[in-house]
Amino acid sequence: MKWLMRHRIPFGFFSALAGEPAAGKGTTYSSLAAAVTRGARWPDGSGRAPQGKVVIFTNEDDIASVIKPRILAAGGDPSKVFVYRDLFTFKDNLGAFEKLLKELAPTWVILDPGKPYIGELRNAHDDAEIRRILDPVAKLLGKYGVACTLVYHLTKDEERAMGHRLLGSIAHVAYPRAVWAIGENPRDESERPVRGFMPIKNNLYDPRRVGGLEFRIESVDITVDGKKITDVSHAVWQDGAVLMMADEYFEEHRSKKVAKAQKDVEDILEAHGREMSSVDLRADLIRRGHTPRTIRRAMEGLNLDRHHAGSKQPGQHKVRLKTRMTS
């Protein structure tokens, strides 16, 4: 088995990187891409990166003001990074993708976000259709010995397991051999919290043995082509591995969400004389930004009395607060 980053990012297979908006996905892969361009040491201490070219397909970040500065801030060589903003799809342009692999010979290909590059699907939840599109691409990755990482956004439903929060079909998680989650450490309440690069799954090596990594995002001012650019983000990696899975690492964040929802339930009921209809209560909680799943978990853990007051239509019962959980 050959690895771009040992036991984490394989050659010849798809891998995936997932996180919420502003989680630091672009900063993370820019830091790792910079290591590839210089053959620098990996942050996990597993040796040096195989030096080579990096291809980034993206329709989100600007090349001059975001991508190139991030590569420079991380100590990379931007002349070895090739950024393409034209949207192609594996479904319709497989030949062009093979031509790129053959002629440019990149070491690592990154697609951010990955979903549009797969191509339009008749059914976004059809695992078989996604596999039919990606199987020929995977053969090319194996043929040319290239690592390929798809970047995904996570849904906001924080009560679900990480593997079920990628937008679209579960095949977006099932197909890549290794999937990593990016996000803030929920136990770090500092202004610049530590973030985790944590395994959702790894089919090629025991994820509990390799664990995840932590880093902080810091900003620097740099000059690019004679122009000063301020507050360019780059990852500063922490020493040592964190032997946890993504769901374990980020679990406390979900617990905090439930606790916040419970506090809001109590406050809303107190403001309404300690009793109101369940429909109105849930509507109030949704307006405060809570998801239905968080609301359900919050309600289950509170000392509430539910009863019908005249109407017995489904969902029209009253909710009464018996005693507060907090003083």
Description:
The structure is a single chain. This protein is of the alpha/beta class and 327 residues long. The protein has helices spanning 25-38, 63-73, 94-104, 115-118, 127-144, 171-174, 207-210, 246-249, 251-271, 278-287, 292-300, and strands at residues 3-5, 9-10, 14-19, 54-58, 81-84, 108-112, 147-153, 178-184, 195-202, 213-224, 227-237, 275-277, 304-307, 318-321. The chain is globular. The chain starts with a strand and ends in a 6-residue tail after the last strand.
Structural descriptors:
globular, Rossmann fold, 2 domains, alpha/beta, 25% strand, 9-stranded mixed β-sheet, 3-stranded antiparallel β-sheet, Arc Repressor Mutant, subunit A, 327 residues, 11 helices
Whole-number count of domains:
2
Please identify which CATH superfamily of the largest domain we are dealing with: P-loop containing nucleotide triphosphate hydrolases
Strand neighbour order, sheet with most strands: 5-4-6-7-3-8-9-10-11
Q: In the CATH hierarchy, what is the architecture of the largest domain at level 2?
A: 3-Layer(aba) Sandwich
User: What is the name of the CATH topology of the largest domain?
Assistant: Rossmann fold
Helix tally equals: 11
The fraction of residues assigned to DSSP E strands is 15-25%
Portion in helices = 25-40%
Please summarize the sheet with the most strands: 9 strands, mixed
Shape: globular
Class of the largest domain, according to the CATH hierarchy? Alpha Beta
Given as residue ranges, the uncertain stretches (5+ residues, pLDDT < 50) are none
What do the pLDDT scores average to?
Answer: 86
Class computed from helices, strands and strand pairing: alpha/beta
In angstroms, what is the radius of gyration? 23 Å
Terminal-residue CA separation: 57 Å
The count of DSSP E runs of length 2 or more, i.e. the number of strands, is 14
Order of helices and strands: EEEHEHEHEHHEHEEHEEHHEHHEE
Oligomer classification = single chain
